[in-house]
Design brief:
Chain lengths: 356, 798
Amino acid sequence: MEELRNKYLDLIARAADEATIEDVRVAALGKKGEVALKMRELGGMSPEERQIMGPALNALKDEINTALTAKKAALADAALDERLRSEWLDVSLPVRPRRMGTIHPISQVTEEVMAILADMGFAVAEGPQIESDWYNFDALNMPSHHSARAEMDTFYMKTPAGSKEPPAVLRTHTSPVQIRALEKNGAPIRVIAPGRVYRADYDQTHTPMFNQVEGLCIDKNVSMANLKWVLEEFLSAYFGKRVKTRFRASHFPFTEPSAEVDVQCQWNNGYVTVGEGNDWLEILGSGMVHPKVLQNAGVDPKEWQGFAFGIGIDRIAMLKYGIPDLRAFFDSDLRWLRHYGFAALDVPTLHGGLSR
Amino acid sequence: MKFTLSWLKQHLDTAASVDEIAETLTDLGLEVEGVENPAARLSTFTIGKVIHAEQHPDADRLRVCKVQTNEGELQIVCGAPNAREGITVVVAKPGDYVPGIDVTLGVGNIRGIESRGMMCSERELELSDEHNGIIELASGNVGQTFVDWLAQNDPAKVDPVIEIAITPNRGDALGVRGIARDLAARGIGKLKPLTVDPVPAGFTSDLTVSIDSDTLDGCPLFVGRLIKGVKNGPSPVWLQDRLRAIGLRPISFLVDVTNYFTYDLNRPLHVFDADKVAGNLRVHRAAGGETIVALDEKTYTLPAGAMVISDDNGVESIAGIMGGDHSGCTDDTVNVFVESAWWDPVQIALTGRALKINSDARYRFERGVDAAFTPEGLEHAVRMIVDIAGGEASEVIKAGDVPNHARAYKLDAKRVQSLVGMDIPESEQRQTLTALGFRMEGDMAHVPSWRSDVLGEADLVEEVARIASLTKLVGKPLPRATAGVPKPVLTPLQVRTSAARRTTASLGYNECVTYSFIDETAASLFGGGDDARKLENPISADMGHMRPDLLPGLLRAAARNQARGFMDLALFEVGTAFHGGAPEQQQLQVAGILVGRTGPKDVHGASRPVDVFDAKADAEAILSAMGSPAKVQILRDGPAWFHPGRHGRICLGPKKVLGIFGELHPKILRDLDIKGPAVAFTLFPEEVPLPKNVSASRPAMEISELQAVERDFAFVVDTTVEALTLVNAAAGADKALIEDVRVFDEFIGGSLGEGKKSLAITVRLQPREATLKDKDIEAVSAKIVEKVTKATGGVLRG
């Protein structure tokens, strides 16, 4: 018995492949195997002998079976290890190419502006880019002879010969949306209007198309002091640090009083940093909406008053993200789009931060 | 608008520094664009005296001088012919920057002799073009700074020049006096009185002036005086200096006088050579078509209605804009007629624009010249002419009258607080307005004649706040419109536009912002390029048309990138395209292009040329992100810029097009210089229907515990049969049971024969009530085959 056990366990231990294992199994436990034959002998034994030998043989059978299974698994593992050894890959190889898209800085900054001003209750209004003479000029207190018109380098649409209508224009500012929004919603109102505007000017710092965001807040008791607070809150949130502003008297036909607004900044080797230093940088125009403009939009200036402002989106994008050249915004140079663009899921929010 | 400090001080009694004045002007709304202070440039130079000069041993033209300076005696080698003992000179020492030669001096060695500095010529100091010799001063002490010497002896040379930008409302600030008035109102000095001692009339003129009745609305007042026996010639030095300092070229005294008062008092004038005027002067409207050679020696054809001044010879002057060359003054002029008139701003603007003349006179009349000052302005000019050029003046010849622009507005002192948010006492408000020339009568503020821009109560508030300084404004929180958490503000379209943008970027596209105007060729290729969408005044020919579609701009961008060596591109843009030239004729688009290969060649062989199904996949993903329904129709017959057989319109019914995708037509790629292949999509967010149910709650989820079964079918159909038709037919066989139908294989030709193809589909059956039995499956299979056969004429492949 003990002899049998040692013999087979030894054979199992020495088996080098699955076929040998099978041979061993047949030799030991097969129908004519040695252990099976011993089992058969049980019938001829006395009950007492059987009482001892029966369990012993069963135990032996189990032990051999267990050894066989374990050896099989060990052999399979060894075979797998052997296969895996041959399956080495150079994982330093590059992956299958995957395109990485980007969001244009203008879109990103527009969303940043919307996130901040939405928190102050400003909705987003829109208007057409080809605009009528009335909305772009007259309604904004710039009658046809107004010299401010001449200074705006307006693009005009071609009019059919003999047409008496003044030609439509490419809107020179987002301010016509003030009128459209007031006509649609009346007062009180808080809206911003981001979008493309056009002026016939092209040089180092001007492109014939650029982007502005208009702000408009009309209510009963809104003053220029509120405007200053809104702008300082907005600029501080946008630039991510406390930004001081300076209001300077100026003139826009559609606001009265009017102010140009400078932000505190510092110049260093031709680069400008907003929110520190002792210099001032002109950043936007603003003022209290002119009574005539309110009137033109069907709002009673005796009852309502408020402020408006206009900021260059491209300009504040350049300032915040250190983008040097305005013209490159519209060139679609892949290198520029990748360098200055934003990740698709980088959505600016107030709770998660406007920029990473 | 430029002026010098000394000019300003002629009207303003002030001790303020240039810097203080400049800062104040900007704050007042007269934004300083530049201050040019010659003193700053010359500050290092000092006065020296040549105490000894001798011939350079090795150079004929050089002299070795010993010069006494504030730093002791210096040896300076000098090549100027006038360098000699005893003269007083301007010395630049080592370390000094000499502007005229753009050099910072060091210690030199000139032909073996050390030289410690230089004695400067006027050109070297940028004082004039004089370079025949070094400066010899008639006075001056050794060590004194040259700037101090100039200030005492030749102040014009160190007179700071200030340039300011004038907003269109401030015509009054186009004269130095107007600027001085603003500064005085702020408290920077006192405005000096302006007086004139009119020249008494010496004779009665024969010349008369008349204004046609139909021109009185544009020229209500015309005054003039004839001066006989003047002697024209160069202007006095002070006048020449002033004009030069502000960038004007002195011409002759009679011309310079008009320029001077234009800038000094914002009073444009014209001086006729009276001997060239035939008969009398008449102010009238041009009939149209008359020509005149103006003072700029260009010939202009007058538009009908333009105001002109004529004599018996014809038109002599374009009124209020530019005088005529024929009757202009020359050096030989002896008898002159001086004109001072008031012209209506709107009419001047229109004529000026029509003739494209940008003159100082037009610029000022357009922005408002003080009408009431017209006669007095004339007296200032006549006084100066007679004082300097001599002659005898006639009585004043006058046509029309000073127009009555008088108006007054109520000063509501509380309005400054409510509108601006600044607390300014009423007395200070009244004082400000008075200083600006308003006449206070009770609470009514009468507007001064030079402030044509003040047209309402809000203007009074503006003046008060401006003079008080907006820098004093303190921010005040804007309360929330409603308490609590702010509501969302974006419209559904704005939300989905943003979703479309970010989805497209996440699919690997780079967002572009291209110009809304493109070249005619590209516009025409995409259904545009017509006159309606053409710009009247494009900035260049390649920006002449409003884009009919976003694709041409993206393809032009792709071509530029390919020229830089980037051949494989995924670009997109979200923006408006224009289907007409009127407002609202615009449409929001999301457009993308894929050009070249899916990526650079790679070790895995994954890169392949882009194809129409890439564009379709991305178009579907973006539409889905915008909330488009999953079930759409794919129709053909899209626009001509797509490959006729390889594009599709994504539709909800034949009229509702959500988007178009496809391979771009090879001709388009050729014309736009794109190295293809190139596929594209254009989507229309405004067309995607908004959800009817606005509730955030989702419908109940229905899932079955029963086993789903998939069965494959292959049908042989004509090659023209579209897969979607077959899929829809199969899906319609049992709408309750069939959960999904997918095409997994297409095989064309081979043993199937010409014109045939095989489409294989997997149908997924999802039982709801009981496990499917074989006979159930057979029944639905038979129905699928029947439906497909009926819809496509196809047969089940054996």
